[in-house]
Structures are given as C-alpha cells and as structure tokens.
Recover the amino acids of this structure.
C-alpha cells in the first residue's frame, strides 16, 4: 500500500542553524501538508500546498519557514534559523483530489527535530 | 476561535468492552470532522471522516457520530482489543474561507488483555 515517507527520522541541530525536512508524498496525491506536535501538546497545522504554491498557512508558519516541491516527488519544509521552541515532531501529509481537507489525509511517520 | 476538547483524557479498559470517546467543539460552523489514531512515536492514521452534512460514519468496529448543533462527536469502539491501544484524536475544520484543522489533545486508550 502506498505511504508517505519522511527523512530523517530524527534531526539534531544547533540553535540558529538551517534545517530541511524531507517528505515523499503518495505519488498521485495533489495536496501536501506540514504539521507539528510539540512533545505533550496538540497537533498543530503549519501549511498546505497545492499546484506549487501555498494554499493556507497558520500563524505559526512565519518568515522562518518555507516549503518547496523541488521535483515531482519530494516536498520539503525549511526552517531558516532554528530556535529552541522549534523542537517538535514534524509530520508531512498528503491527500488526493478535491478541495483541501475534504479528502482523507495520509500522514508520514514524522521527523523528530531537536534544537540544542 | 475554534476550541476542541476531548474527554476522557485517558482510559484503561479490559478487552472486550464497548467504548465511547467524546469530542466537543465550540464553533458549530464546521466543514468536517476527522478521527485519527496515533501510536506512540508514530504518525497519524485516519480512521473516519464525517462531512458536515453527515450524521455518522462506520468502519468495521468503529462508528463516529456528529451532532453539529450541540458541537459534539463521539467515536464508538465495539468489542475493544489490545491492538486498539493508542491515542485517538479528533480534528475539526471550519468554514468561512479557511480549512485549517483544529485538533483536540486526544484520548489515550489502553486495552488490557
């Protein structure tokens, strides 16, 4: 069964460094999403992406964050200058046709980001 | 601003029991509601998606109901099994131009043999 994959599974970085989290969505999906979950907290939406542009973003997704689909398979989340409070599990998700969020989203296993 | 609350926060039951997990939301103008399962250290798995026009959805031993007017959804798990042990999350998506989902904190379920 097709699945969303994410790399790396765990990323440790120093405060102020740039990180890129990578995701490979399910191949025929059109919508892509990033979420984060700080340890012990709720899952929070970051951004949705469709047709090579951001369709929605939350207030968390500030200028330090960016997303890109550099080729036909990868979807990346970049954090330019990491802060301690960026430490969290980051989940990528994708969904099929229809308007955003009307269809079931399939989540990857997550990347645990630790900022020291 | 939408607020989503899940009760109980944790539940421990013997195998075979029928369970009800609750999700309540403050703004009844929703687009849809989705129930997820999250295993420790893992991503989310979608269980059921209920559109705002629907009253319930069923999948195997799972049944989710939606009552928009009262701002409530319930997830019913029949004949629970140890493999059902996980955290169950509900997420609500609003209307009015933004489909950003709001998640609850989840119900942590342990089913012991």
């Amino acid at each position: 069964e097709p699945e969303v994959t994410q790399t790396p599974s765990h990323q440790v970085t120093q405060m102020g460094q740039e990180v890129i989290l990578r995701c490979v969505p399910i191949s025929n999906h059109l919508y892509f999403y990033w979420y984060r979950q700080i340890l012990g907290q709720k899952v929070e939406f970051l951004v949705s992406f469709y047709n090579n542009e951001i369709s929605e973003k939350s207030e968390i997704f500030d200028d330090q964050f960016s997303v890109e689909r550099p080729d036909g398979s990868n979807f990346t989340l970049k954090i330019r200058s990491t802060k301690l409070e960026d430490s969290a599990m980051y989940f990528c998700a994708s969904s099929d046709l229809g308007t955003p969020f009307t269809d079931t989203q399939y989540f990857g296993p997550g990347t645990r980001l630790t900022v020291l | 601003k939408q607020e989503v609350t899940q009760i109980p926060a944790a539940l421990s039951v013997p195998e075979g029991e029928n369970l009800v997990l609750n999700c309540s939301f403050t703004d009844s103008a929703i687009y849809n509601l989705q129930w997820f399962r999250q295993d420790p250290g893992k991503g989310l798995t979608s269980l059921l998606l209920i559109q705002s026009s629907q009253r319930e959805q069923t999948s195997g031993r799972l049944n989710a109901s939606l009552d928009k007017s009262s701002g409530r959804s319930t997830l019913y798990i029949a004949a629970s099994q140890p493999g059902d042990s996980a955290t169950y999350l509900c997420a609500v998506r609003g209307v009015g131009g933004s489909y950003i989902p709001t998640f609850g904190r989840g119900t942590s379920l342990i089913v012991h043999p």
Chain B touches chain A through 23 residues (CB under 8 Å). Residues 89 and 106 of chain B are 4 Å apart (CA to CA). The mean pLDDT of chain B is 92.
